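Hi, here's the filled form for the chain we discussed.

Project: internal
Contact: R.S.
Residues: 257
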Amino acid sequence: MKKLVKTFTTNNYFIFSLGIIFVFLMWFVFSFSLKEGNLFFPSPIETFKSLGLLLSKPFIYASIGWTLLRTFIGFIISFLLAMILGILAGNIHWLEVFLKPLITVLKSIPTAALVFLFLVMSGSKYAPIYIVFLLSFPILYESVVGGMNSITKEINDAIRIDSKKSLYPIFKVKIPLSLPYVIVGLASSFALSLKTEVMAEIITGSTDEGLGCAISLYRNSDPTNLSPIFAIALIIIVFVLIVDLIGLFIKKRFDME
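And the returned structure, exactly as it came back:
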């Protein structure tokens, strides 16, 4: 019996599933405690009904595709730049110190301010891509630098002694050792980027397609019924949960807990 209990309490996926069930119970209780739930906080039942109706409409799949596409474009550009600068800064101390103020500024700028800035500079079509890029870049950059800095002094000393080529230890030793930190950073920053993309679509308002535009459409068409908006939010949450599960798998795979 003790062995069975230990198995369940140490199984991250089982505990993760219990956490999801707990969230739904809290959601149901909170919605039930409010009067006129659909107006303020729709119940899970009403939300899933709206979700079923949404999934029967072709436009929602186009909206998901556009949101994911813009997120991927901004995220991939951010990842490539973060890898280049992160590897350099992780091996050149003065460069890491030099870039630190810039990274701090990028992390501190309110997202809403960036939305309005890029809305004026590039229009509503491309503004969400730039926002995803600037939001995810500091997280990815710090993941790469953190991975580089996590390499022990003993390994660095061995690299200096055994390797005569300057690039060989970076690509053959340091990057592979830093990879677990980089992948975890990818998982966490992508989830945040997806949420930011949707928020940017809502604020810009005139983007052609996207889940944020679908939220604005339903909000404007019937302000008294929030269940379709919650259903769209549930779609976003599913993608974020998938990314979180990937992060849990990576942590378990590389014994990073």
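Let me know if anything looks off before we file it.
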